[in-house]
Design brief:
The complex is a heterodimer of chains A (478) and B (634).
Chain A (H helix, E strand, L loop, with lengths): L19 E7 L2 E8 L2 E4 L6 E7 L5 E7 L7 E6 L6 E2 L7 E6 L16 E12 L6 E9 L10 E3 L7 E6 L5 E7 L2 E7 L7 E4 L7 E8 L3 E7 L9 E6 L8 E2 L6 E7 L5 E6 L6 E6 L4 E7 L5 E7 L27 E8 L16 E9 L18 E10 L6 E6 L4 E6 L5 E4 L11 E6 L14 H5 L3 E3 L6
Parallel strand pairs in A: 25-31, 28-32
Antiparallel strand pairs in A: 1-2, 1-24, 2-3, 4-5, 5-6, 6-7, 8-9, 9-10, 10-11, 12-13, 13-14, 14-15, 16-17, 17-18, 18-19, 20-21, 21-22, 22-23, 25-28, 26-27, 26-29, 29-30
Chain B lengths: L2 H12 L25 E6 L5 E6 L4 E6 L4 E7 L4 E6 L5 E6 L4 E6 L4 E7 L4 E6 L5 E6 L4 E6 L4 E7 L4 E6 L5 E6 L12 E8 L4 E9 L7 E3 L5 E9 L14 E9 L6 E5 L10 E6 L5 E6 L4 E6 H8 L1 E2 L2 E2 L3 H7 L6 H4 E6 L4 E6 L5 E6 L4 E6 L4 E7 L8 H10 L11 H4 L9 E2 L12 E2 L21 H4 L2 H8 L6 H13 L16 H11 L15 H4 L10 E3 L11 E3 L21 H5 L16 H11 L3
Antiparallel strand pairs in B: 1-2, 2-3, 3-4, 5-6, 6-7, 7-8, 9-10, 10-11, 11-12, 13-14, 14-15, 15-16, 17-18, 18-19, 19-20, 21-22, 22-23, 23-26, 24-25, 27-28, 28-29, 29-30, 31-32, 33-34
């Protein structure tokens, strides 16, 4: 946008060297330190491993992932910004990492009066591999930081992608932006804090590059790390897209030959980044995103990789939202318990060159993916769809109306993909990604892989006029 | 009469009322400051640019601002909720449309006083003058027509039928052709997309030359013709009312933009959005072209911003040149919903604050003035710097009363996810958009389609929702609105009370169908008798429960109970509905709980085959007409 005068989301402290919190990592050893006036103070001496700090909106506390003893599962902790008052928030055998504070939100239906603080984190599902068997399946969760009236601490799983999700960050509009395995690489997706409104953000079809570790800047842009690999949290280039049009404004900020990680907003419109040259350790630097130029060094101890530096200061609270899911839903659930509703306006609305021809599709088939446990033999050879380490279960089929619309009640909180079928029952198109509907939620799709910049057509579809959704529960064995 | 005084007089007139089976209710008492707010709505620059006329709807004044000193130099009390402005060619007279008094004040600009009041239709909005200044043209939103007023005789000589809810007027450069925007959809079949009419009027011939359809659009407000006369631009809303309200992102509830229409006869129209994929610019209102036609300015009154559109870039995108849009229809259909395209032509977004409405641009294109309705200011925008450089204080109270705060909350889209909509989006001018919606959570998607209802005098008509589920406005606009419409946390507790009180304070519009002394004419009296009748035309007894007056008693036309009158439609899960009020029925089509009919008569004929919704199947056409005339007096 040329010459625009935009409202800034926030301004960070203008002083040259604000206090920072960051991670120092050497091999399997990691710790969280506070950098204040050039002095480094370890905030987590009692942890064998501590990482993934997130500064609270008030600037007074930190969430982090900690390992009390080597080999312990990682858990989420909170402490004051001076390292005091540490308390454990999660427990169990599965690793919990990458916590981020979420906006305050109430879930106590029907008044929704008691807002509590939530946080999002990544948890490795016990007993489940990701779809390619590379390791544990990791999903996003949301948990209340304080007890919810009448329910205690509430924990919700919010993503069900069988490829695995990582690196959540919170946008100013309240959405969680995260890195998600989408077939051949990692792409950026958004979701509401409670797991509604899953939506691609950037990179789902942008070739072999993976995107991760995003952060939003005050100028309504998002900076992230772009790399060739397929594993989250790899170093790469810094790239930037503008929120006014993410799919069309990508720009690489950094130069070849340098690796960057963990960008975060810094003071005076700069970024705080971890950067290294080949063969060297990561150090913290400022980076000027508008000029694409590396700025001054903040800290670079060759004995450590310094990562994840963030300013210890207040920042604006993102927009909160009352969720529509589970017990907070206002749906008169009745027969819809454990289900969500999904409708598609037009399966023929697609940006794919091989899209179905109008009238070609008669039915849709929803196929659930069930992850394999560790040690199980692959369900099929790698490289195809469904992926090798996923068993499938037919949720069911539903008719597609002549105008391309369909409407189903579908088992909630279970990942599935969709196939469109012709009159002979042959597959016309297969969705090669996982989607889901949260239990108690309602979702609409514009089309089948439609252009994501298109708002829906205003049309009462035949499926909606008929208003007889088929219920797809998939009660058989996978 | 100013809105504030109207408010006060309503409070006196109504007092505590107790409709059948209901609690007493009275208008929230305004504070003294509420009657002092100006609420500037429309602007007009004098041809030489020295004077800026500001219509202040709440204070009932027109203020005259010296554009050099940027100070208010004069004020004229015109009363009646002033809106449209037009200046005579000789510069001596300013015409001011007055919505509450349904007339036009002619202001002597030398004496600075009203010298005459001219007749107009109901709820006059846009004004224009014939090229010779002999005739005044008035868009009457309430009567869906254009008054042609002979200024030599001070009388209305003609009424031309326009679209529904004519709002703004734009003239061709030679002033011989008039283009009108329409606020409401023309009648469409049930669950069909809306469409508004852009009427093209031959000013000298005093006839409607063409009725152009803007399909898919509603709330057409600001309208302007390009300096070369080849294009007309209308600020519009493109609703998604026919799809279930399951989400807000990706423009799922509503999008905003402008219609670009060719001015040649039978010309095409195209839509371009001013929204972005992650941010919306709700409630577009004022439209102004730069003198060279290169830039278009649109005020977004819900987003507190003015968008600067590179008009040439927009035309290139549409293949528009020499007055013709070249892009094929399927491309235009795509562009009409393309959120990413605005970065091609939205050159700047200028934050203004406080509900920007009417715009006026200096003849040299340097200074753009924007009426900041809820700040009692006019923003002065330097179009070269593309920023607000000054604010003209119109002298309203600096304090923000609870009702004023409520008005602000009602009009700010920041309450919703990505600022996609404000309360005013669906309730423009505190009324209604005339659309039906699929509020998906009510019985599931595709079920229980509901007609939107006006906010005017809704206060005493609890319960709310067509199912009567919400006992108070606070409940209606509390978590439910937050969860289902705004997809945020909605209004904070204090703000929830504030906006509820504001909504409760919204009066109904003056009803010109009812005589000032409240007496009914003969037709209305006949209609009243039919409304209250206990026997049909054949002398058969009508049980009390099936008489119109039982469920629709005075003063609001609702007993506030839930009834099943056999109006269940195929999409409804049951037939029990809260009795709707009848306030200002004449301006609230479509009708019935799902908005399936555009005329009252349909309710009693097509949709009452078994006389379960009152006994009507024995009535004659004359009786229906009388009944309608009576209902219009509510």
């Amino acid at each position: 946008m040329k010459g625009c005068a935009l409202l800034l989301l926030w301004t960070l402290p203008l002083w040259a060297n604000p206090p920072l919190v960051l991670v120092q990592q050497a091999g399997t050893n990691s710790r969280i330190v506070r950098l204040d006036g050039g002095q480094v103070r370890v905030l987590t001496p009692q942890f064998a491993g501590a990482a993934d700090p997130c500064v609270s909106f008030e600037g007074t506390h930190l969430l982090f992932a900690g390992q009390r003893s080597a080999g312990d599962p990682w858990q989420i902790w909170e402490m004051r910004a001076d390292g005091a008052q540490q308390r454990q928030l999660t427990e169990g055998p599965a690793d919990c990492r990458e916590p981020v504070y979420l906006a305050k939100a109430a879930v106590d239906a029907p008044e929704f009066a008691q807002r509590v603080r939530w946080f999002c984190f990544v948890r490795a599902l016990p007993g489940a591999l990701d779809e390619e068997g590379r390791g544990p399946l990791r999903s996003l969760y949301a948990q209340s930081l304080e007890p919810v009236p009448g329910r205690g601490i509430v924990t919700w799983r919010t993503t069900y992608n069988l490829g695995g999700d990582a690196a959540p960050a919170v946008l100013g509009d309240g959405r969680v932006l995260f890195s998600s395995w989408q077939r051949e690489g990692l792409a950026l997706m958004t979701i509401s804090w409670a797991g509604e409104d899953l939506n691609p953000f950037f990179g789902t079809h942008d070739g072999p590059l993976s995107q991760g570790e995003p952060c939003e800047l005050p100028d309504r842009s998002v900076v992230f790390v772009e790399h060739q690999g397929t594993i989250p949290h790899q170093g790469g280039n810094l790239a930037r897209v503008e929120l006014r049009r993410p799919l069309a404004t990508r720009r690489v900020l950094s130069r070849e030959g340098e690796e960057y990680r963990t960008p975060h907003p810094g003071p005076e419109g700069k970024l705080l980044v971890a950067r290294r040259r080949p063969g060297k350790s990561y150090g913290i630097h400022y980076f000027e995103p508008t000029r694409g130029r590396l700025g001054s060094k903040v800290l670079d101890d060759p004995a450590w990789d310094e990562l994840d530096a963030q300013v210890l200061a207040p920042r604006p609270e993102p927009t909160g939202r009352i969720p529509m899911v589970e017990f907070a839903s206002v749906l008169d659930l009745g027969d819809l318990k454990g289900l969500g509703q999904l409708q598609c306006l037009n399966v023929y609305d697609s940006d794919r060159p091989d899209r179905a021809r109008p009238g070609q599709v008669e039915r849709v088939r929803l196929v659930e993916g069930v992850p394999l446990p560790p040690g199980a033999a692959p369900a099929r050879p790698p490289g195809g769809w469904p992926p090798s380490h996923v068993r499938t279960r037919l949720l069911g089929e539903a008719p597609v109306e002549p105008d391309g619309s369909f409407y189903v009640n579908v088992a909630g909180d279970r990942p599935f993909y969709i196939e469109t079928l012709d009159a002979q029952g042959q597959v016309v198109q297969t969705m090669r990604a996982w989607t889901w509907v949260r239990s108690g939620d309602q979702r609409g799709c514009v089309g089948c892989h439609e252009n994501r910049e298109l708002a829906p057509e205003n049309r009462a579809t035949q499926a909606l006029i008929r208003a007889q959704p088929v219920t797809l529960k998939g009660e058989g064995k996978p | 009469m100013s809105a504030g005084r109207l408010l006060a007089s309503c409070a006196l007139a109504l007092g505590p009322l107790a409709p059948c089976g209901a609690e007493p209710w009275s208008l929230p008492a305004p504070e003294p400051a509420d009657s002092l707010y100006k609420s500037p709505i429309q602007l007009l620059l004098s041809p030489e640019g020295r004077r800026l006329f500001v219509a202040c709807e709440q204070s009932g004044e027109v203020l005259v601002v010296d554009t050099r000193s940027r100070q208010v130099r004069a004020k004229v009390e015109v009363g009646g909720e002033p809106f449209g402005l037009a200046q005579s060619p000789d510069g001596k007279t300013l015409y001011v449309g007055c919505r509450a008094s349904n007339d036009v004040a002619a202001v002597d600009l030398k004496a600075m006083r009203v010298q005459a009041r001219l007749p107009a239709g109901d709820d006059p909005h846009g004004l224009a003058l014939s090229p010779d200044g002999a005739y005044l043209l008035v868009a009457n939103l309430g009567t869906n027509d254009l008054s042609v007023v002979d200024l030599a005789q001070d009388r209305q000589v003609r009424r031309l039928s326009l679209g529904r809810g004519p709002f703004g007027l734009a003239q061709s450069p030679d002033r011989k052709t008039l283009y009108t925007s329409s606020q409401y959809s023309s009648p469409v079949p049930f669950r069909a997309p809306p469409m508004i009419e852009m009427s093209v009027v031959d000013v000298e011939g005093q006839r409607v030359r063409e009725r152009r359809v803007l399909a898919g659009a509603v709330i057409g407000q600001g309208i302007a013709a390009s300096p070369d006369g080849r294009w007309v631009v209308t600020a519009v809303e493109l609703p998604k009312n026919l799809i279930p309200e399951t989400q807000v992102y990706q423009g799922w509830m509503v999008t905003f933009g402008f219609a670009l229409s060719e001015t040649r006869p039978g010309g095409r129209s195209a839509y371009l959005l001013i929204d972005e994929p992650n941010l919306y610019f709700a409630d577009p209102y004022g439209v102004a072209f730069s003198p060279d036609g290169g830039w278009l300015y649109l005020s977004s009154s819900g987003a507190d911003a003015v968008t600067v559109v590179d008009f040439r870039a927009a035309c290139r995108l549409l293949g528009a040149e020499d007055g013709r849009i070249g892009a094929p229809e399927d491309t235009l259909r795509l562009y009409a919903r393309h959120l990413g395209l605005s970065s091609e032509y939205a050159a700047a977004r200028i934050p203004t604050g406080a509900n920007p409405k009417g715009l006026a641009l200096s003849a040299d294109g340097r200074w753009l003035y924007a009426a900041l309705r809820l700040a009692d200011q006019v923003a002065v925008i330097d179009t070269r710097k593309r920023m607000v450089v000054d604010h003209i204080d119109l002298g309203g109270p600096k304090m923000v009363t609870p009702l004023r705060r409520g008005a602000q909350l009602f009009n700010y889209a920041s309450i919703s996810f990505q600022k996609q909509l404000s309360c005013a989006t669906c309730h423009p001018e505190n009324g209604v958009d005339g659309l039906s919606y699929d509020i998906a959570a009510d019985g599931g998607m595709g079920h229980n389609i509901v007609d939107n209802m006006t906010m005017r005098q809704v206060g005493p008509t609890a319960p709310f929702k067509w199912r009567g589920k919400n006992p108070t406005i606070e409940r209606q606009d509390g978590p439910r609105a937050a969860q289902l419409f705004f997809r945020t946390h909605g209004f904070e507790a204090g703000d929830r009370r504030t906006i509820a009180r504001f909504i409760e304070s919204i009066p109904k519009r003056p009803n010109r169908y009812l005589a000032a002394d409240g007496r009914l004419d003969k037709t209305q009296q006949l209609g009243k008798k039919l409304f209250e009748r206990a026997y049909d035309n054949q002398g058969r007894y009508i049980p009390a429960g099936n008489r119109c007056v039982t469920c629709h008693p005075l003063p609001y036309g609702t007993d506030r109970f839930i009834h099943d009158v056999g109006s269940q439609n195929y999409h409804d899960l049951d037939g029990n509905f809260d009795t709707p009020h009848l306030t200002n029925t004449y301006e609230r089509a479509p009708f019935m709980h799902d908005g399936r009919c555009y005329s009252l008569e349909e309710i009693w004929t097509v949709h009452n085959p078994d006389d379960t919704h009152g006994v009507t199947n024995d009535m004659s056409k004359d009786q229906f007409n009388a009944l309608i005339e009576y209902i219009k007096t509510f």
